[in-house]
Amino acid sequence: MGNNDQFEIGRVVRAKAGRDKGKFFIIVGRIDQEYVLLANGTNRSIKKPKKKKIKHLEAKPDVVYNLRDKINDGKQVFDAEIRKSLEMMGYE
């Protein structure tokens, strides 16, 4: 498994650099091999996700499978779902 394979949609990540350093997000999209789209349901919504370089992220072991499946199926995801998922796993 390559290093970038762990940065899949639904994965919980922590920002290692930038103004978001130390904050937790869920990957809600993949742009290319270098960039992903992040949301946390509070200051970064699903409608306006943060574009971030993978090298500035630390992948956590948790994947929110229900959100990943909804995103992959093109279903609507709400900010409250993202917030609740992060809170339930202790990432706040």
CATH architecture: Roll
Binned strand content: 25-35%
- Largest sheet report: 5 strands, antiparallel
Number of helices: 2
Q: Count the beta strands.
A: 5
Task: Tell me the Rg in angstroms.
Answer: 12 Å
Q: Could you say which structural class the secondary elements and strand pairing correspond to?
A: alpha+beta
Number of domains: 1
What does this 3D model show about the protein?
It contains two helices and five strands, in the order E-E-E-E-E-H-H. Helix content is 20%, strand content 30%. Strand 2 (24-30) and strand 3 (35-39) form a beta hairpin. The mean pLDDT is 95. The radius of gyration is 12 Å and the shape is globular. The longest helix has 10 residues, at 79-88. The chain has a five-stranded antiparallel beta sheet with strand order 4-3-2-1-5.
Write the layout of secondary structure elements.
Layout: E1 11-15, E2 24-30, E3 35-39, E4 50-53, E5 57-63, H1 65-72, H2 79-88
Antiparallel strand pairs: 1-2, 1-5, 2-3, 3-4
In short:
This protein has one domain (3-88): SH3 type barrels (Roll), CATH 2.30.30. It is 20% helix and 30% strand. It has two helices and five strands, in the order βββββαα.
Comma- or semicolon-separated keywords:
92 residues, alpha+beta, SH3 type barrels, 5-stranded antiparallel β-sheet, 20% helix
